[in-house]
Write a structure and sequence with these properties.
314 residues; mainly alpha; 3-stranded mixed β-sheet; two-stranded antiparallel ribbon
Amino acid sequence: MLTSNITSTHPAAFLLLGIPGLEHLHIWISIPFCSAYTLALIGNCTLLFIIQVDAALHEPMYFFLAMLAAIDLVLSSTTLPKMLAIFWFREREINFYACLVQMFFLHSFSIMESAVLLAMAFDRYVAICKPLHYTSVLTGPLITKIGTAAVIRAVTLMTPLPFLLRRFHYCRSPKIAHCYCEHMAVVRLACGDTRFNNIYGIAVAMVIVVLDLLFVTLSYIFILRAVLQLASQEARYKAFGTCVSHIGAILAFYTPVVISSVMHRVARRASPHVHILLANFYLLFPPMVNPIIYGVKTKQIRERVFGLFLRKYP
């Protein structure tokens, strides 16, 4: 045991058990996980490369998409390499401080992704409801401020957690029944009064999800009203068609969150591996499908991807 100070005693390392109850299937489970991670890496790196090198894509919508791709890369890379090491090599040990760092990055970048999805909803609102003011409203400095605000909000909300966890005394077995260091999974190993951590974690999650989804919903209410006021049906389809990719990204991000939350409350007696698989799905699904959604539905990106792979990229 490592003694960090008088009030805190923590183990030198935790043991990540992977998916308890399905240890014999870890190798097989790793196949879709590795495939999803590979797709996420290729897809998001391709998006970032295309947006960077093509000046025609240096517009607000694509800058926000680049932020989303970068966040998805960090989010998936924070957990998947260690997860695959557990599945393939049984490398279950993770240093105490490495665990806290992983937890910080995991939760911080999840909050950032929610903020960027909200910013993209604002982008679509301005583009459809105030098209004549689009370039004057969504300027480069404003986009930079939005991105900075997303980072500051996430870091501010998540910074207290590692310091709070470091001060706990850990008297239980250092085994985490999960594939990665998740806040509540670590809290369960701590002794003493953990009520503040429990309340803080739930409050942050609820505030982020509820507020961000509320503003996204309000944006689309105004967008829908503006679209329905357009004269021709073709114009309505074209206007709303620019939102399809963003709606797909929102569903990809929030649907697993809602399903996991409902399962925790409705199916409390379900096997632990069910909840762990849902949590892994939440981390893997958005980074994998977001590049596909935008690649398929956004003509400019689709054309440049084809040009890139056909070596005809201008």
